[in-house]
Design goal:
Helices cover 24% and strands 29% of the residues. The protein is of the alpha/beta class. The protein starts with a strand and ends with a strand.
């Protein structure tokens, strides 16, 4: 198992004005600096369109401004797009809220975006918003939507991304028992076999349930499901990052979780709760194999309140 070194650097001048924290997660003892060829994108989750007392509109507005800077490719959203799929008004709230970034959005479903009694709304959200936006945001390589839950992939500059929606599982066993994930693990495996194969291409995964204490503690996906995912995907492919949601947390909370599979360590990073004003800027540098994540808080003038790095 790789030795994970954690260092925390706090800038004193920033500390006087905000809770800015900097973390550096090193999975390697040496790091060769080369000319940067970064892939930059934005990420968030848990928009819950239709909720009152929400900062999601402000979060999306801040993301829209950031999209034009630093060559950001798009925004990856790890589920819970609406506050409840059963309320048609939430669908239109989401469509209106996302209009400024619709052509740059690569979103997946969360547990609030599907349900057995809302098939019409679920189909409409998938076909008329999620799929249409994804097709304009990136060259989609694979798109499956059994039970109208999307699983799809694309490449950005030699890195393979897969949006898995709810979780990389084939059957839902959650406390709600009403959110069919579709055969997401099967579709993920098909995509990676076809579009990655044995070439060791770096892979980034987005899904809703993560490795945080809420997602695993409340059994939203169980140990058997996580083990199957780890053994068939994480152990076999060069997954360098998982971006997740589901747990609602404030932007200055860390929530970067190491997942150890054999000799590998892959980090699950909760990208930010849009509902609370959080989102992340993510940069991947394939030359020095470093991922930089800057968490923003729209409630603090869109300042960066958390800055951490991962070597892969």
């Amino acid at each position: 198992m790789k030795k994970i070194l954690l260092t925390m650097a706090i800038n004193n001048s920033l500390l006087l004005n905000s809770s800015f924290l900097c973390y550096d997660f090193n999975a390697n003892s040496t790091n060769i600096i080369k000319e940067s060829k970064e892939i930059n994108f934005l990420a968030t989750a848990d928009i819950h369109a239709g909720y009152e007392d929400s900062y999601s509109s402000q979060t999306i507005s801040a993301i829209a401004k950031k999209l034009s800077k630093n060559n950001n490719r798009g925004v990856v959203i790890s589920g819970d797009l609406v506050g409840g799929i059963e309320y048609t008004g939430n669908l239109f709230s989401y469509k209106t809220m996302m209009s400024s970034i619709s052509t740059h959005t690569l979103a997946g479903f969360g547990n609030h975006d599907s349900g057995p009694n809302s098939k019409f709304n679920q189909t409409w959200l998938n076909q008329n918003i999620v799929k249409r936006n994804a097709m304009t945001a990136a060259p989609i390589l694979y798109y499956a939507s059994k039970d109208e839950v999307p699983v799809y992939s694309w490449n950005w500059s030699g890195i393979h991304f897969v949006q898995c929606s709810l979780a990389p599982i084939n059957k839902d066993v959650t406390v709600e028992q009403n959110n069919p994930p579709g055969p997401a693990l099967t579709e993920l495996r098909k995509d990676l076999e076809t579009n990655v194969g044995v070439n060791n291409m770096p892979v980034v995964l987005s899904f809703h349930y993560g490795y945080d204490e809420f997602s695993i503690g409340e059994n939203w996906w169980n140990q058997e499901q996580r083990s199957e995912f780890e053994n068939t995907i994480l152990a076999k492919y060069n997954v360098i990052l998982m971006s997740t949601g589901h747990l609602h947390f404030y932007p200055n909370e860390l929530y970067t979780i190491p997942v150890n599979v054999g000799k590998k360590t892959i980090y699950d990073v909760l990208s930010g709760t849009a509902l609370y004003g959080g989102y992340s800027e993510i940069s991947i540098n394939p030359d020095n194999k470093k991922i930089t994540i800057k968490r923003h808080d729209v409630n603090k003038n869109d300042d960066v309140v958390m800055n951490f790095k991962i070597n892969y």
